[in-house]
Amino acid sequence: MSAPRRPRRVSTGRGCGIDIGGSGIKGAAVDLADGRLLTDRVRVPTPSPSTPQAVSALVAQIVNGFGSAAGRRPVGVTFPAVIQHGVARTAANVHKSWIDTDVDALMTSELGRPVHVVNDADAAGVAEARYGAARDVGGIVIVCTLGTGIGTALLLDGRLVPNTELGHIQVNGHDAETRASDSARDRENLSWEKWAGRLEEYFRTLEELLWPDLFVIGGGASKKSDKFLPLLRLRTPVVPATLRNEAGVIGAALLAAEFG
């Protein structure tokens, strides 16, 4: 069964995306017409402690380093948290002082230019929908990033439904990401077959809840998708992400250009 197609929307010009993670901060200037990076992707270690002041200062340093290559549009910034109207409501793998911080206002003040802040998995999902594995796919698409946890992005006809946090649904009495994330596979030394069985249970639960048209698998595990995707027996097509570690940067730049 193939997924339905949707009309394409095309953005043009240049943007700038920053992807904040617990261990590293990445950034690049982006060609919004095709999602291509216009500069080398910069990656620097996340400060320790990763306080709002320390992280925002480093983000400003990265953005300023791109100069005119980043264009004049707002800067897109991903953050590993639920982001509600620019405010962090959680803090995954960063300092807890981020909780209830207005990240949008903080970054706007530090950078001296408009900023659009978005959850990291949501940014990756938008990038895959516009330029990557879910390009032109209509209906419901779920992008899952399998890494330390399970990040998710839910898209309807290419439009983001933010902050879904589907990695935390209960499967057989357990928080899904505690048993089906890539870190769980490493921690328990699971075979690909055993882990694929857990993933299949998780994805089948999502199928029953949402009836998606496509699953896209990203995160660190996507680099070895040939080891486990063929083992999944699902009614929904499932494909690996194509933008890999650049997805967050690209999606952030795109969302900033459209909504910042």
Tell me what the structure shows.
The protein is an alpha/beta fold and 260 residues long. The chain has helices spanning 52-66, 103-111, 120-131, 176-180, 182-187, 192-210, 225-228, 247-259, and strands at 14-20, 24-31, 36-37, 42-45, 75-79, 83-84, 87-88, 115-119, 140-146, 150-156, 159-161, 170-171, 174-175, 214-218, 238-240. The chain folds into 2 domains: 14-122 and 247-259, ATPase, nucleotide binding domain (Nucleotidyltransferase, domain 5); 136-242, Nucleotidyltransferase, domain 5. The protein has 8 helices and 15 strands. It is globular. The N and C termini lie far apart (37 Å).
Q: What would you say about this model in short?
A:
The protein has helices at 52-66, 103-111, 120-131, 176-180, 182-187, 192-210, 225-228, 247-259, and strands at 14-20, 24-31, 36-37, 42-45, 75-79, 83-84, 87-88, 115-119, 140-146, 150-156, 159-161, 170-171, 174-175, 214-218, 238-240.
The main sheet comes to: 6 strands, mixed
* Helical residue percent band: 25-40%
CATH architectural grouping of the largest domain: 2-Layer Sandwich
Shape: globular
Relevant terms:
single chain; 260 residues; alpha/beta; Nucleotidyltransferase, domain 5; 2 domains; six-stranded mixed beta sheet; five-stranded mixed beta sheet; 8 helices; 32% helix; globular
List the helices and strands and how they pair.
Blueprint (H helix, E strand, L loop, with lengths): L13 E7 L3 E8 L4 E2 L4 E4 L6 H15 L8 E5 L3 E2 L2 E2 L14 H9 L3 E5 H12 L8 E7 L3 E7 L2 E3 L8 E2 L2 E2 H5 L1 H6 L4 H19 L3 E5 L6 H4 L9 E3 L6 H13 L1
Parallel strand pairs: 1-5, 5-8, 9-14, 14-15
Antiparallel strand pairs: 1-2, 2-3, 2-4, 6-7, 9-10, 10-11, 12-13
Helix pairs in contact: 1-2, 3-8
